[in-house]
Structure formats: structure tokens, C-alpha cells
Amino acid sequence: MISPAPASLSLTPDAAFELTPDAAFDAYAAAVRNEVTVEQNIAHVAAVLSSATFRSLSTQQPLEAMTRLARIAPSAGAAGARTMADVFDAAYATLRRDYRNEYVFKNTIVSNIVFGRHRPTTASAILELPVGFSFADVAVFNGTSTVYEIKTDLDSFARLDSQIRDYSSRIEFVHVVVSDARAIAAERYVPDHVGVLALRRNGALTEVRPAQSNRPRLRSEHIFGLLRRAEAERVVGAAAANADGGPAERWEALRSAFAALDSADAHRGAVNALRLRGMQATRVAAHAELPQSARALAYSATLSKAAGERLLRRLQQPIPPVWGV
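Predicted structure:
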């Protein structure tokens, strides 16, 4: 397990990229810990694999990311880590072994589905996509739409009923993803049209029950809510997009025009729009310099071209020696 940074850890401006001296001192103060509990250590490791850390590392002053990375860098280095990317991999290995939180499930799904079953050039993922009154953990779009709803061993099934209702009228295939210990319980709980996948201890994602198509359940007026205005306008065409009246009237005209579409046409248009939206993350997600442990992060925090290049460059830099490595 990755251990916390020793009390002798220090940060310098040179080691902290663009950090100012004051910011470097703040990172030093935040990173130093004399004693932490096992639970706190896991929290430090999990904090590295977060969209907040990922975004911060792409900025010109990555104080937040550097502070979090500095906390676990010494033990990551002791385990063989040499670059910043290696620290992400070490953190992920610790979570996979000791604390399979939601991120472990998300990254496994992205790696096995987008980079395994499909290709990142033809399929894309959107994490935490609003779907009705729910947020889909991982939504994948290629020639169709698929949602993967994660229930870790710490989650109950209490909200599954409402989540499945939201997904089933908007998404063609719905899966619930659980640990292998909960696979039988999940299969008994969810409706027959919902698939069940199990994350095994070895990291494999196994199909317990296949998902059935929701095409008979899809409703155009529900699918409309998945899209941004410009995306919906491209689906319905110029006539509805250029309707007369004020913003409220034009929005209602757009909604009505989309709701009038055949559900198959509405779904096809939404899949194309959402696949293109998710593709914005591909530049970073599919880059050879991004560690596999951070693939889900790339789909959860779409970056500008400049920010993406900055992040990829930093990931390849060596761990600063003053971090105790």
C-alpha cells in the first residue's frame, strides 16, 4: 500500500513546475503529515485519481494537484515510480487492491469497453451524464447508446428503480455493474431487460446477464433532454431551429419538433451528437503518454488543446527528488 509522505518532505519552486515560492510553501505545508490513519491514506490515494486533480495538473499553477501527488510520491517511488504518470499508476494499483471505489469501476469500464470492445476513434464515453433525474456513471456512444450504472460494495440498490426508469426511455442498453460478490443479488433485483456485469478481483469485467434493447421503450421527448440546444437543432434541422418568437418560444418549438420525431430517428440523432461530444476528450484519452490508470479521468474532464498538452507534458516529467523519492 502507498504510505503517506514523510515529515521531511519539501517542495521547491523548481520542483513544482510553475508554482510561485509562496505557492510552493503552501503545497509543502499541505503535503506534510506526521501520522495518518489507513483511512486517511486511502483518501490521499483516491484524491489523486479525481477530476479535480486532473484539471489542476493541466493549469498553469497546479498547486492542488502537486499537493495531492506529493503526499503519496515517496511510497510510489519506493514501489518503482519514476514519473508523475507512474504516481497515478501506483495510486490506481493501491485502489484496485485495497479499496475498489467507483473510480476503479469507471476506469475498468472505459478501458474494457471503449479501448477493448471498441476503439476510441469510433466510440466515446461521457461520465456522469444527466439522464432524466439521474446521472449515468458511464455512458458509451458508438452505433448506439449504452449506460453502465455502478454499484460498489458500499452502495445500496435503493435508487436503482428510479435510475433504470430514467435510462430505459432514453438509452438503448442499460447495465448495472457490481462486484462479483453482488452479481447474483443484482441479477435478482433488476428487471429482465437490464444487463448485469461483474468486476472480478483480477480486474476482469464479466457479463452475468446481457442487456436487452430498450428500443420499444425509447421516447423522443425524453431523449431531447440528453442534448444541448445546438445538438438538438442539428438533429431536427434548420426549420425548427429558426422558428419565430423569443427564446422561450423558440425553445418550445425545438422541443416540440424533436418530440415529434420517430423515436428511432431521435435516438440515432442523439447518439451521433453525444458521440461527437465525447470525442472531444479523445485527444488526451487516447494519447500514448496518458497512463491507462487515468483514462476515465480524461473523459470526466474535457480539456482545451493547450491544457491537454500541458498535462501530458507534466505526466512525463520525473518525480522531483525533493519529494523524498
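Summary: Strands lie at 124-131, 134-141, 145-150, 173-179, 195-199, 205-209.
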